[in-house]
Amino acid sequence: MLELILIVIGASGLGWWLYKKKRLQESTENSASIISLDDRIQQYQEPANLQEMSVFDQMIHVIRQQASNLNQCAIFRNESRKLWQISEEGDQPLLVMVMGEFSTGKSTFINTLLGAEVLTTAQIPTTAVVSLLSYGDTPAVKLHHRDGNVTEYDFAKLDEITAEGDEDKQVLRDNLDYVEIQYPNEMLKQIHIVDTPGLNAHREKHTANTVNFQEKADIVLWMFKADASGRSTELSAIKALGKRLKPIAIVNCIDNVMESDDYEDDEDPVEETLQRFRQRVGDSVADVMGISALLAKKALEAGDSAALEACGWTNFKQKMDETLLNRSAELKTRSMKDKITDFIAQMTQVFQQYDKKHAENAKYFQNQESAEQEIHEEIENLEKIQQRLSGGIAEAEAIQHEYQTTYAPRNVEAIDDTEQLLNLAFSLGMQVDCVVPLLEILPDDDRWGPSIRDIQLMQEARERIVRSFESWFTRYNGLCGRMQDLEQEAEQVEELRTEYENSGLFGGTPIFDFSGRRERLNNAVGAFNSNMESHQNDVISHWQKYKNICKSALAVNEDIVALERKLYQLMEDELTYEKERLVRMQEDFHLEQERYSNEKLELDQALRTVKVLEAAVASMA
């Protein structure tokens, strides 16, 4: 079982490798084909005998010359190829394209026209590829591949390629642009005929191949079936052809209505059918003719002129000779004129698109200065933030140093020391204000989000510390009030001391204290010493409390410094990005200016090309 799985995997891998190799080869060949075409366009030279050439051939020269000029414009390379293709089509005989839905008798019609069984016919959709019939001294088949290569094929096996059914040839058909069938028929010296796969046959490739070949056509013959003609799908497809290819309508299979029982004896079923058809299609077709290609084929083989006339072939052939064969040169010139006119119209639309684009570019150039100014302002703002962060770091480090060197190792000496420590601790707590303003300008994204949350946490820590300061500052004010009371008490003690020391009979300290001054003095001194001791204990307690608050503030302060350093580096990265963005914007601006200037030069050249083509079209009138 495992071996089987490995074999399947290996086969699948080999198949995929071969497929990728084939696609790569096709891509390379297609690229080479385009390069070869561009080389032909760019290397085109004016013919030496130009003045001796016909007016039509001189027109072909003008088209190729302008295609060569246009090919020098990088933005119009595709347009130059289209223009060159029009010139190559002009070198060929009148191209008559036979179109219609499947099973309308297109192939039978062409075989009858040529008087030979060249194309496969059947009651089901049979034509699988676009077939171009051209003149050749002997029957031959050339396969025109999508990659531009052309290969010979056995004429006797033509059905294998052009008709549905042979699945072995499907891969080959899928890679064909069209099949060229060369056949020794004098008509094919004047016109080339294109047989197309039937539309509405539920085969997308058929429809795509037919539509892709339309641009090359000069004349379209649209085949209808007499008993099912003028359907909405047909009319929609005809409308898509445009004015240039308004088709000649050929209503085929009129034998189906000639034998119909739906008409009275005095009615002409064919004329009635054609009349209804004309009413339905209106002016969407150039002319309407009714035929039976199958009866005509049989009549031609039997040499029955009456049958040919009865099936409408005589009338059709006469009009064919008058309107196509005898006027092929005139029609070719008109078709070339129409193709160039369409090309000019397409180029005009392209010019309009570029005008709109360049109007937007003009706005871009006008806004460039303001855009650069915005970046300059952003850079200046970031630098100010950096300066603020740098100053905050320096201030925080100075406060930390002052605390560590001046206050951390000391014990309380006086109440004023408590006030100084309070101011220092409050400064530590307020350090977070250096980063709090950043909350309003930092974007809350993956890059800045964590820093924003750190600032918010430190802001909360600062608020707790400040609340502690405010609470203990009230107590500090009480201590200060008590100190004032003690100073007043000390003055009172001193007064009692002075009064006692001068209360003797002859001045000085009395020998016997009959007034009780000594007792009052001793009591006052004892009370003062007790109050002073209590106050000193409270000051020491308060001092230790403030030292603890300072330690908390110091811890927050260290976190703030770390955050400031982190933010400083992020700002540094942002500054680098903004400066690089400014440089890129300036470079892009210069590149856009250069590209705009080059586009303007190429547009001017393309406009000159179109003017020459317009003059050439006017001369063909």
UniProtKB/TrEMBL annotation:
Coiled coil ranges: 476-503
Superkingdom field: Bacteria
Dynamin N-terminal domain: residues covered: 96-246
Name of one Pfam family that matches: Dynamin_N
Keyword tags: Coiled coil
Keyword Secreted: no
Tagged with keyword 4Fe-4S: no
PANTHER family for the chain: SARCALUMENIN, TRANSMEMBRANE GTPASE FZO
Protein name listed in UniProt: Dynamin family protein
Taxonomic lineage from the root: Bacteria, Bacillati, Bacillota, Negativicutes, Selenomonadales
